[in-house]
Amino acid sequence: MPEQQKFYLYCRHNNLDIRDEMGMPDYSYKFVENYFCSSLSNYGEVVEVSDVSELPPEFSDNEFLFIFAPPQEIPEAYIPNSIAVFAWEYSTIPNEPLDGNELWNWQKVLQSSRAAITHSSSTLESMELAEITVPKMALFVPLFEHFEYLSREPKNRPWSIVCDGLNWDSAARVASPNLSFSEVTYTYVFNPLDGRKRWEEAVSGFVWAHRSNRDVALILKLIHKDQKKVLEKVRQYIQHLGTFECRIVIICGFLSDENYHQLIRGSDYALNTSCGEGQFLPLIEFMSAGVPALSPCHTAMVDYVNDDNSFVIDHSWSWVPWPNDPLLRFRSMNYPIKWESLCDAYVASYETRKMDETKYQSMRGSARDSLFKIASKQIVEEKLLSFIEALS
Amino acid sequence: MFDTYSVDDDANYDLPFQEWPAKLAMIDGLIVASRAVEAKVRNVVGTKTAVQLVEPKIPHIKMSQLEQGNSETAELPVISCSTDMYLSTGDGRWNSLQEPPPHVLNRFANTVLNQTISTWSLGNPALSGVWPIGFYPSDLWGSWAELEQATILLPIIVSGPIHITIQLIGSGLNVGREITVRFGDEARQVKLSPYLEAMHFEFCPSAPTSQLTFEGYELDFETDRRGLGVGIASIALVQSSQWTGSELSWSAAKNDTRQLSLVGFHIGDQWGSWAKTEDAFVLLPVKISGRIRLLIHLAACGENIGRSMNIFVGEKTFSVILESDIKEYCFEFELASLTDRIFFQGFSIDEVVDSRGLGFGIESIQIFRLEEFFEDRYEWSPTNSQSGGITPFGFHGLERWGGWAKSREAKLLLSTKVSGRQRVGISLVASGVNVGREITIRFGDVSRTAKLSSSLQHFVFEFDLEQPANSISFEGYEIDGESDGRGLGIGVGTLQIERKANILARLQRKIFDRDKQKRQVPSELVASPQVASAQSLSKTDIHISGTVFIMNARPSDLVSEYWNEIIKDFGLVCDSRTDVHLVVVCPSSWMTTFLLPVCEFIDRMSSMPVLVHFVFLDNDDPEYARLLRHPNVILLKREDGLDFEMARYAKSKMNVTIGPLSPGQKDSNSEQSTLSVGLLKQPTQLIRGLDTPVKVGSYFDNQLLCQNIKTVLDLAIPKVDIHHPVHETLDVKQQLKSIIWDYQNA
């Protein structure tokens, strides 16, 4: 790198406790910003900003303004200086004002910006389609090293975690903060109020596939600050599925790092039934830790989910509105999973875990290797630095 | 016979009806409506219970019979269809969802009001037909306004004097507020109450109008965070017309199709309606005059029991003593002047019995014209009770055999007075204490006796009437409270009154017939006691040129968004094509409820030029049959294969069809359709967004459906009808007959 560079990292969640923002719109931008902060601090001065007033009026060539927010939230005056870092999971980039807001025309905003960074190659393609010609790149969050060590540890049974908050266990009469698992476990980390997650299909498919199997457990780690509300929502749905022998556990509370890592360590499979993802941090975390997945291979997952590291769930597509369009006009595609394919994946993955250790270990290794290629600090930093150099 | 979507193929698990397999296994036979359900049910019940398939069969052209290459669409015949209404993606730009272009409004309201009473509901599909604009989706009771100015577009155009009764409600801060109701260039004020209230307005718009506009309320965000304006349940238009003299009969009961127009009454109960205010009155849809018989059923409660109440009809006044039970009163009178109202006086509003405040109660009203000329013959039986010139008074509701008297004053009333020698044939029956009893039958000033038995017995009497008489009464029987909870007097099965016609009578008859002809009025002015459902009022034509796909929408689609997926798939394939159309046939009888989602959907599709027409037609409308029988249409069957509506009319020709792939079939070139689309299973809640059980449904795979639509478009569709001899086995009735025959002969 040439002389000292200065990186302004703007994220409106910077001064907030992330616990209070869990499940709220765009809260994962803060996670992304944290990782960028850590990487960029090795190459220059980093200034974290949560208010526009803290930004300088002008930027030199060696000063870079990263905006961790959806493009319509980029402060208008700073659009020409901004390097937009954003997630997007639809087939088209918004290219018209929504609800009278010109900034929702992302095509126009991004085309006026200094550069754009998104996470997946799929979103990069959408930008190409939208004829956004400013410098742009796809960059996943460099979190591989934080979880990779777990891939080298054996999967012991039983294993336990302690939850600080609400939880529910279909196999227990009374909820206990200490949860112990000896079954083949599938873990899905999601916000139940986020319609893209299609968690209902994950749950119903699990019950359908493993209804009479006591040796499987589905762990639903919910991300939302209103624990009671989301717990009730998910529990009510489960209770409409009739009787079943398999186990479903809902965890709502914020897990300590130690317990979260224990959750990853203990889980046999990570689960994803979403119809579109910008990158899907939990899946990247689990797979970096050598946890194979049950996941569709669309949107961001195209870059890291494959038959070697996952039971790939088939998907279809649907013509849908952009999520923030109040008029709900059909403008884009998302990719709902094929539910029967999910059911098949549940059965096949269980059989593999119980009867084919070689294949399972191979999938673990493949998961770790795949994520190294896109989310390791080394790879991400190389790409980021060369991108910044090109901008200077 | 049943349909299910939740019984799993694996037979040992079901969502959510765990008891079904055991129960189904105990039944002798099951009839199911699709192969998909048949396969599931067979898995569940095994071989113990016979499972029979009755399915809609639509003859289809096989893929091998079709040639590759685009149809020359310019040569395709134009499809014309007379619809109750249609909305199209090709209608041009709307200012907003609440501002349809004028030509769309004109298409909806294009008929002059020609009914005496027209009633529409915003919640009850049986009275569908208005277009609420600026309202939330309908609930069963009606709909809340979403905007501060909301409009209800009527399907008819009105000018001149009109009575409008609107059931309104307010909530939160709108309770007690005076709002404005506009109809054309006129405005009226009305105060909102916290419960549904039928308010009466008299308008006389100088120019033809069809829009009722509501304003002057606020959006109440406290009761409901959506913000509620005025709530509207129903609208009734009453246009008084000339009375032809036909029998008029109205009910005050809730949801009765012969709804009486009541002003100042509470919303009807199952039996009838209670007066709410002391100035309550009945608005008749016709102006009556001349010699009249009025039958009215009244009741009272609380402090009004035993009161004397006056009834005013034109210049006549009658008095009744109100009783706690519903009692029938009969008045015969002659009105010199025309009137269309019946007023009541002498009751009070009792708030002790019911906090709503109840005056008197009214169950029904019947009005008859008393004829001036003798008839040679009168005949009455339960099957021709409306037209025989005889009206039972003081009887329970008629049964198939006849009717039981409910009071000791039961009579049979003739529409005119008769005199001279009359031959009366009457069949009578008794129950309980009246069996074996001798009763007196009185006709005018002459009486005869008959001994009653427990079965219908026919008696013939001769009466020589010196004084003209118009009723036959019965004396000497009791009300039997033992045999039936209702309390039974005598039973009357049939009645014939006949006299030997002499020269004078024949002359009178001739004059009478001539006079009857003179009194005939144009049919559009004939008063009908029937409620006009709006579906038959508005008709508008659509003309389509090109290749036309047809699919049906159903009421159940209102709680599912899946039908949208099929239309979207068509849109994705046919984007920017002006020669390909999709006609979505929506049930006209649900028009009011469908209009909002259809408008929203058209708006949501606005990003791409594609021709989709939402046509409102009921499937018993001949136009629907004509549409399906058109040669160059492609039938897009629904994902469940339950297209009975299509099968009914499309069975006489060979069709190009796209439909679901049957269980066990893998090839898209199946036996069921020209092209078959693979299905995806999908768990959904029975009612979206509500806390309801989970079902597993089958839906088209979007990708495959798009492929098949595209494939069909690449084929040369026959431009002329390929007629198909109707095989009996295709007909649903025939399929059912065959099953029953097999059962009977098993």
Report on the architecture of this protein.
The complex is a heterodimer of chains A (392) and B (746). Chain A has twelve helices and 17 strands. Chain A is α/β, with parallel strands linked by helices and 392 residues long. In chain A, helix 9 links the parallel strand 13 and strand 14. Chain B is mainly β and 746 residues long. Helices cover 14% and strands 36% of the residues of chain B. Chain B starts with 19 loop residues before the first helix and ends with a helix. Classes of the chains: A alpha/beta (392), B mainly beta (746). At the A-B interface, helix 6 and strand 16 of A face helix 5, helix 6 and strand 41 of B.
Topology:
The complex is a heterodimer of chains A (392) and B (746).
Chain A: E1 5-10, H1 18-21, H2 28-40, E2 44-49, E3 63-68, E4 82-85, H3 106-111, E5 115-118, H4 121-129, E6 136-138, H5 144-148, E7 159-162, E8 167-169, E9 178-181, E10 184-190, H6 199-210, E11 216-222, H7 227-239, E12 247-251, H8 257-266, E13 269-271, H9 281-288, E14 293-296, E15 310-313, E16 318-321, E17 330-334, H10 339-355, H11 357-375, H12 377-391
Parallel strand pairs in A: 1-2, 1-3, 3-4, 4-5, 5-6, 10-11, 10-13, 11-12, 13-14, 14-15
Antiparallel strand pairs in A: 7-9, 8-12, 16-17
Chain B: H1 20-25, E1 29-32, H2 35-45, E2 50-53, E3 67-68, E4 79-83, E5 85-88, H3 102-108, E6 111-112, E7 117-121, E8 131-133, E9 143-144, E10 150-158, E11 162-169, E12 178-183, E13 186-191, E14 197-203, E15 209-215, E16 231-238, E17 241-242, E18 248-251, E19 261-263, E20 273-274, E21 281-299, E22 308-313, E23 316-321, E24 327-345, E25 361-369, E26 377-380, E27 390-393, E28 403-404, E29 411-429, E30 438-443, E31 446-451, E32 457-475, E33 491-498, H4 503-518, E34 540-544, E35 547-552, H5 562-573, E36 580-586, H6 591-604, E37 611-616, H7 622-629, E38 633-636, H8 644-650, E39 656-660, E40 675-677, E41 679-685, E42 694-700, H9 702-713, E43 715-716, H10 732-745
Parallel strand pairs in B: 1-2, 6-10, 17-21, 35-36, 35-38, 36-37, 38-39, 39-40
Antiparallel strand pairs in B: 3-43, 4-34, 5-37, 7-16, 8-10, 9-16, 10-15, 11-14, 11-16, 12-13, 12-15, 18-25, 19-21, 20-25, 21-24, 21-25, 22-23, 22-24, 26-33, 27-29, 28-33, 29-32, 29-33, 30-31, 30-32, 41-42
Helix pairs in contact in B: 5-9, 7-8
